[in-house]
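Many introductory courses stop at the sequence. We go one step further.
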Amino acid sequence: MPQWHPHRSQLELPHEFSVNPLFSRQGEQAISRFKMHNQGMLPETAYQIVRDEISLDGNARLNLATFVTTWMEPAAERLYKDAYDKNMIDKDEYPQTAAIEERCVRILADLWHSPQPHTTLGVSTTGSSEACMLGGLALKRRWQKARKSQGKPIDKPNIVFSSAVQVVWEKFANYWEVEPRYVDVSPEHPYLDPEGVLSAVDENTIGVVPILGVTYTGVYEPVEAIAKALDDYQERTGIDIPIHVDAASGGFIAPFLQPDLVWDFQIPRVKSINVSGHKYGLVCPGLGWVIWREAEDLPDDLIFRVSYLGGNMPTFALNFSRSGAQVLLQYYNFLRLGKDGYYEVQKTCQLIANFLSKEIQEMGHFEILTNGSDIPVFAWKLKEGDTPNWNLYDLSRQLRTYGWQVPAYPLPPGMEEVTVMRIVVRNGFSTDLAHLFLMNLKQAIEYLDSVEGSLPHQTKHDNGFHH
């Protein structure tokens, strides 16, 4: 059976669909699905057409695959409606929105122990992917400047990360012509560690990117130990290699749940950090942040000035026009929750992750790989020697019949023969929902166990992995 593809599937639909104008006296009419109609229609009718179609999407509250926030409280929803039309790039027209963005940068710089939180540079982005691109560009540009000052070539830059890195870093290396050096994970080394880093770096390395919350399993890579190894490397070779921490998820977890963990700007070698405001920053998509340790860590030639919006203002984002609502919602959360509130929200998520991982371990079929002790994310695989007539892809599909979206996917290169399932516990996933999920999980397993003979598998096309 061919792999499902959304575009091909859409083309199999009739090219016209009927419009039943619920709020007019005209009869039903046909309209092209793929061409713009000559005449418009009542707003209520257009709304109903779109509303009916998206009702076929999954229930966001039952989506245990995504890291992205799927719930905000009613006051935040009201604020979003008040602010969605503000253009974040137009700082002359919306000066208070710009001022609030600046406050958020200062708050994050202070939270991550910047030595100069009131003067360092940072910016909001559409998400961590854009933030990573900016962090990576700053690494490359600083490396190029240093090499030029030494009279050395700049044609072979490389960047080092584990094979479990998020796909944005593959894109960065491809788009900006930097050689990606992957340190493969293994059962003995399941994440980027000092030994793997030292095997990959050289004088052309623009930076090392440890992950604070690996997407596949939720674990923290040891930033402090990697930095210490690079300190020793510099003492031996004279080569100074900076670190960018991809803290897309952990940047809003570690400061509250693991305050004694050293991973941020307390380490002088850490020059920049990115985080997703729309993940554990608890803001609806899309919002990211990137902060530099000190202002001089962001090369000046990456900052542009524009005058055609009414003032001479600096910009160093990749995107331009976008809504300022998410930035305002981030500040709302900072005011609404404070440090104690963020702790309570993240701790509740972690407790539910610990509870679920323990219950799943005790079911007998599974081996827990991570239990949510870092970020509230955990993963499991089928036990060695446990050979039911179904696999984790079958279990993922069966859970969809109850509405639950739980991805099954292979681990990254180095451990790709291992298939796992993963749950992301987010704000809004209550203990009651956790119990309901466990009930449905047991029912799904009972059903799969009852099927005689092996189920047909298409593992290559069954990857249900979502970032």
